[in-house]
Each structure stands twice: as C-alpha cells, then as structure tokens.
C-alpha cells in the first residue's frame, strides 16, 4: 500500500495506466475527477462517494456551538466531499440562527426556501436541484423545517449518504 500525494489530474491519469506496477487506485476528489479518471484508467479504480452533506440544527441546540460548527463545515475546506452543502434549521430557532449566519458566512452564496429568504434577504431561491447538489464551493442550500422528522425526510430525499450531522441537546433526537 502506498500513499501518493501531490500532482494533479495528469499525474493521476498517468498512474492509473501503469498496469504493470499498480494494482489499484483509490483517488480522492469530486465528480469531475471521477469522470476524467474513468476515461483513461486501465487499472481498477475505487471511487469515493460524492458528498451532499447536511447539518441539521435542532430546536434544543446550543446556537453558539451550532454557529461554530456550520461556519467550519462550510468554510474551512468547501471543495472536499465532506463539506456541508445543505443546512436544515428548526423553525423555532431559525430567525436567531440565520440572522447570526448571515454575517458569519460572509463570502458564501446562500440559496434557500421562502422562510430562509425572509431572514436572509440576500439568499436566492433554492431549487430542488440545489438541495441535491454537491457544490464543492462557497454555496449553501438552506431550508427551515418544523421537526426532526421533517429534517430526516429531507435528508433521506436529497442526501448522497456520505456524512450527516445533527446539532442538538436532545439525546432521543440525536439517536434518531
């Protein structure tokens, strides 16, 4: 087993054609890398899953903690597969939290549902595709939900199944 770091797509494409010396390639990257590599690879390749990852902020959440988690999850490395792409906020805390996030997520383009737009005036209209997309960029889809059940239903509908998170102080909601 060898870890090969550095280089770019051209070097990875060259590696993926060395069938005499390479048994398997497991690349790390987005859908564009998968497409480029699958066009040239002559060795077996295992692709990582795409990451339409969600954070749900529950009614019982510590909003200071939620804000820190959200800013980190979106802004630290937005181009990785485990970055947050969609944010779900319980309606009882939406006004307070989204007002905070409007300033904290400076530089992030936000699209959202009508309730999100009522709080974050700069937010664009989110489409069905937005909620199902791995952006890999400083773009965030936001929806306000009325319960943990609504959040779970949204995640089941749009998630890629990569990584999901809940910010809550309710053990029962966390285990759901």
Describe, in short, the structure shown.
Helix content is about 40%, strand content about 15%.
Termini, distance in Å?
Answer: 38 Å
Separate helix tally: 8
How much helix is in the residues?
25-40%
Described by strand count, sense and barrel closure, the largest sheet is:
6 strands, parallel
Beta-strand percent range: 15-25%
Label the structural class. alpha/beta
Radius of gyration based on Cα positions: 19 Å
Strand ordering within the main sheet: 4-3-5-2-1-6
The succession of helices and strands, N to C, reads HHEHEHEHEHEHEH
Structure description:
With 176 residues, this protein is an alpha/beta fold. The chain is 39% helix and 16% strand. The protein has eight helices and six strands. It has helices at 9-15, 31-38, 63-75, 91-104, 114-119, 128-131, 148-158, 171-175, and strands at residues 53-57, 84-90, 109-112, 124-125, 139-145, 164-167. α3 crosses α4. It is elongated, with a radius of gyration of 19 Å. The termini are far apart.
Secondary-structure map with pairings?
Layout: H1 9-15, H2 31-38, E1 53-57, H3 63-75, E2 84-90, H4 91-104, E3 109-112, H5 114-119, E4 124-125, H6 128-131, E5 139-145, H7 148-158, E6 164-167, H8 171-175
Parallel strand pairs: 1-2, 1-6, 2-5, 3-4, 3-5
Helix pairs in contact: 3-4
């Amino acid at each position: 087993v060898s870890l090969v770091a550095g280089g770019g797509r051209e070097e990875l494409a060259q590696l993926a054609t060395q069938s005499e010396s390479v048994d398997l390639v497991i690349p790390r990257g987005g859908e564009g890398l998968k497409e480029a590599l699958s066009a040239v690879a002559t060795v077996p390749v295992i692709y990582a899953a795409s990451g339409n990852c969600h954070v749900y902020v529950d009614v019982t959440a510590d909003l200071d903690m939620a804000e820190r988690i959200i800013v980190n999850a979106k802004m630290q490395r937005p181009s990785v597969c485990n970055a947050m792409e969609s944010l779900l906020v319980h309606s009882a805390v939406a006004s307070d939290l989204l007002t905070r996030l409007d300033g904290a997520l400076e530089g992030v383009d936000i699209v959202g549902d009508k309730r999100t737009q009522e709080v974050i005036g700069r937010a664009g209209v989110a489409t069905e595709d937005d909620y199902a997309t791995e952006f890999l960029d400083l773009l965030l889809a936001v929806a306000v939900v009325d319960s943990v059940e609504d959040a779970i239903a949204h995640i089941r509908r749009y998630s890629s199944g990569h990584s999901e998170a809940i910010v809550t102080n309710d053990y029962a909601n966390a285990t759901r």
